[in-house]
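Please review this one.

:::
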Amino acid sequence: MTDTYARTASTWRNWAGNVTARPARVASPASVDELAEVLRRASEDGLTVKPVGTGHSFTATAATDGVLVRPDLLTGIRDIDRAAMTVTVEAGTPLKRLNAALAREGLSLTNMGDIMEQTVAGATSTGTHGTGRDSASISAQIRALELVTADGSVLRCSESEHPDVFAAARIGLGALGVVTAITFAVEPVFLLTAREEPMTFDRVTSDFDQLVAENEHFEFYWFPHTGNCNTKRNNRSAGPPAPPGRISGWIDDELLSNGIFQVACSVGRAVPGTIPSIARLSSRALSARTYTDIPYKVFTSPRRVRFVEMEYALPREAAVEALRELKAMVDRSPLRISFPVEVRTAPADDIALSTASGRESAYIAVHLYKGTPHQAYFTAVERIMTGYEGRPHWGKIHTREAGHLAEVYPRFGEFTAVRDRLDPDRLFANAYLRRVLGD
């Protein structure tokens, strides 16, 4: 044990700034053995332990007053197995570094979310997902996991090795141990053609099932206070590559989506009455574009405007009705919503606490600019989503507790049984886990 990974901590904040914590210690172990020693010392001192990634969760999943474990030194690719088509990567590796490294090797993940700032362990532990007709979340692409459990032992799990742990730990919330390495399925790098197109709310909701069925990856954004949406369809392409032009790409992805949007959000927060007019102007400023590139350059985008977010997964067949109810609620309320509402889909998977566990799902995500009071809006949205058997995203704001979650997650008891076995003394507990998993 060295002072470099047992230092006294200052205040920790997440990316959005809505969660803070003052851990007693911060540890940055450089190996699995050092991590096991961190856990042993914490247990002896009566402290809990929480691993943290880049803080992109909006919940207090990683908050602790005990030992905060940073994965800064647990990074890099351990192994690429081209026969099995897998890559094994250290848990603290940022997704952006993994994506770039895989591309250099002519490989890619099949699907991914819309940002890549998170660590691989942080993203998978909270159920990060993109959108896909046939391809599921990042966690569903895991083929094996390595984690250090409460007693300091190293446990490796897969479909054939400790399959009960594997079914739970792919989205483990940091409750089962500290993930140290992940093995992902990969495939030869491919090209995606993205088609972005404005569309009316009425048309996109009427044609939603067709749009999902006809595209490998479909998503759209609805601008509250308007009847306007922006749609995005990503499909595999034979090429050739045709990325956005340097100037046009900068205008769309940086100037409009980040720079001007930041100003618009700031004005809207200061003068809420301007938000509907800004929304109408913003949604009308969108134009269609088509481009073709390798997956991570199509799936992901820079997100520099900070916000807070709530997202619920619904049975896919309930998505349109729920979205229409959400729009009606906003239209008749005094709420002023500056951020678009994001809608995505995912196929069913077999992970115990996945938001898509056992059912084809649609995701409805709502956002507000950082510093804007969000409780009234999010409470109203949550009331609608829970009426459709919605499951909250584990890394995004919600108020659900263990009793409710046990009803909407059929395999909830399976997860808590694994937790009871691997962490009976709750070394990895915190207030958030006590609320959502019980104690």
